[in-house]
Amino acid sequence: MSEDVKKAIFPAAGLGTRFLPATKASPKEMLPIVDKPMIQYGVEEALACDIQEFIIITGKHKRSIEDHFDYAFELEEKLKKSGKDKLLEEINRLNQIKLGYIRQGYALGLGHAILCAKPFVKDEPFAVILSDDIIPPGETLLLDMIKLYRKLKSPVLALEKVPLQEVKRYGVISGTKEWDSVFRINSLVEKPDPAQAPSSMAIIGRYILTPDIFDILAKAKPGKGGEVQLTDAINILLQKRPIYGYLFSGKRYDAGDKLGYLKATVDFALNNPDLSKAFKKYLFDVTRNMKRAK
Ligand code: UTP
């Protein structure tokens, strides 16, 4: 049993209704940001933190996630024959990752998705990564949270200050500042009305949790939206142990939302050495034409 965070759960069984019809038969997590599916960014982020075991919670229409991280014999042979070694290496790297899958039969909410991972997590602390929250490579959010866990031996939630009118899309905390970016959480509210929000510090899609959350999730009743809410379970856990928030001030894209997805795509394309120059020129032309049309 590891005392450190060596396992990560990727809940990916949601219905992705904000992206319909694209997500009717294919997973939101496989939508690409330039040339990589969203979930691959999350997996690579965890690998960079020395997380070694991954479990993806899947559901209906999610087979392509498994295929993405599996051998593609025909494709690999073709890349080999055509001498595309760099691409082959990149594709092959995906097969080496130790990934497991658990199916969530019904999309009963994020809390329920995490509960499905109990047999895999057993008695260890674990990370939860919501892969539609894209954190660009180079940011150290997850690593900073793991370091904080090592120090505090308590759950750590990633927080971000969001505009007050947006709090209704998030779980929001009330907390007391401990030091720098670290807050001790007093309570959480799921998707509050801006007028009633305890703060504008929203929980974003990175969590370090401890296995005592499972017993609470197992007894949880559906909350807001008829789903088993993770925030409700964390609220109960708060009665038993301290829970901390880590206020992130780096870049994050809410790519589960169309506008956030487009922002991520534009920024990642601008940072892509093969695309950057031509894409910048295209954006420049678009902006100029828009100004002319005014
Ligand atoms: P979201 O709140 O983004 O829901 O879930 P969603 O279904 O993916 O998308 P919308 O809101 O309908 O557009 C947050 C994360 O929790 C997972 C999702 O796959 C996503 O990664 N999730 C949600 C599950 O795994 N199971 C669920 O029952 C619900």
Instruction: Report the uncertain regions.
Output: none
| CA gyration radius, whole angstroms | 20 Å
Hetero groups in this structure are: uridine 5'-triphosphate
Distance between the termini: 63 Å
Roughly how much helix do the residues carry, as a percent range? 25-40%
What is the H level of CATH, i.e. the homologous superfamily?
A: Spore Coat Polysaccharide Biosynthesis Protein SpsA, Chain A
Number of structurally distinct domains? 1
* CATH topology label: Spore Coat Polysaccharide Biosynthesis Protein SpsA, Chain A
- Total beta strands: 13
Largest sheet: 9 strands, mixed
Question: What kind of assembly state do the chains in view correspond to?
Answer: single chain
β-sheet strand percentage: 15-25%
What would you call the shape? globular
Determine the number of helices (DSSP H or I, runs of at least 4 residues). 11
Reading the helices and strands in chain order gives: EEEHEHHHEHHEEHEEEEHHEEHH
The whole-number mean of residue pLDDT values reads 93
Specify the structural class.
alpha/beta
What's the CATH C level?
Alpha Beta
CATH architecture assignment: Alpha-Beta Complex
Strand order of the largest sheet: 5-4-1-6-11-8-12-10-9
